[in-house]
Each structure stands twice: as structure tokens, then as C-alpha cells.
Amino acid sequence: MGCRLVRENNPSWRGGQIVKKCTVCAGRFLVYPYREKTALFCSMLCNNRNPVRIEKRRIKIRDIHKERGRKTSLDKTIRHSFEYKQWRTSIFERDNYTCQICGIRGRDLQADHIKPFAVLLQIHSIDSLVKSLSCNELWNINNGRTLCVQCHKKTGTYGRKLTTKQYENKRANISR
Among candidates 151, 150, 153, 140, which has minimal Cα distance to 90? Predict the structure, then answer.
């Protein structure tokens, strides 16, 4: 019968896999000829460690922060600080772990700033954790109350619904 059309005997054969060097770990790996120019990494781990990819991620995160005015990360930094957790705990203890609107006790509770947290950050020009620690109004327990999630969502200040101007207009209308 003769020879079979395998490997070198097949006119379409292009030489099998090629050995390449990983650009991150310098390890060797095999690729087919059609991937010779595009295959740069031996694994997904090396792909994720790629300095170019890391820099692109950094730039993307920086752009997101610039677009949002870095308020999100500052907000997160303050809310995860030890002082904030102490403030929150003291509000819960003062209110005996009870929602101040509906009276539910000990379930899905949140500490609510009566004068909104975002408004306080704007009014006092807080742009760092250090500045937030020196702002007494932010940590005043008389500016806090315990609410369950359902009651908190019903307030006008939940989830940054209120801007500083809207809050001040609302306060002015109440005092009239």
C-alpha cells in the first residue's frame, strides 16, 4: 500500500509544535505554528503577572477613581476604619440594638448618619482618613441612629440619594 500521509509525508504538514520562551518566567512551552506570534505566556498565571497587563489594570482603576473623584475609595477607607467601627458599635449599644423607626431588635441593623455621611465629607472638605479622624461631627454619636435595612432604605439619605444642596434645602424647609 505504500506510505501514509503522516507528518513529513503530508503536504499540508507545517512542522508540528514550536518551542517558545515565556516572557514572564522564562520557562519553555509548546505552541502550534499559527500561535507563534501571539503566544507570549506559558500559563494564565504568567499572563496575569504580565507587567503590561498589570499597568493597564492600574490605569483603568486610576481612571475610574478620577471619574468618581476618588470618593468611593475614601468612603470605603473611612467605613472600614477602626474609628468607624467603634462609632457604629456605640450607636448600636446606645439604641439597644433596636431599629429606631419600627422597633425590630437585632436583625439586619445599620448605623445611619442623621446628617448624611457624604454631606459631612463635602462640608468639611474631607479628602483623607487623617482629616476624617479630626472631624468631630462625623464621629458624634448624636448624629447616628440604629435602623433596620428596610427602614434605612425608606429614608431620604440612604445610598447617597441626597446631595449637599438638596440636604440643606430640605433642612431649610423643615425649619420654616
Answer: 140
pTM value is 0.54
Q: Where do the domains of the chain lie?
A: 14-61, 71-175
Residue with the three cell numbers 507528518 = 7
Q: Euclidean distance between the first and final Cα of the chain, in Å? A: 105
Q: Cα–Cα distances in Å, from 141 out to 53, 58, 97, 149?
A: 45, 38, 14, 19
State the burial class of residue 97 (Cβ atoms within 10 Å of its Cβ: 0-12, 13-18, 19+): middle
In the block, cell 468618581 appears at 68
Which pLDDT does position 118 carry in this prediction? 82
Q: Is the pLDDT of residue 151 over 70?
A: yes
pLDDT for the residue 161: 59
Q: What is the C-alpha to C-alpha distance for residues 99 and 89, in angstroms, rounded to an integer?
A: 14
The full DSSP string for the chain is ------GGGSTT---S-EEEE-TTT--EEEE-GGGTTT---SSHHHHHH-HHHHHHHHHHHHHHHHHHTTHHHHHHHHHTSHHHHHHHHHHHHHTTTB-TTT--BSSSEEEEESS-HHHHHHHTT--SHHHHHT-HHHH-GGGEEEEEHHHHHHSTTGGG---HHHHHHHHHHHH-
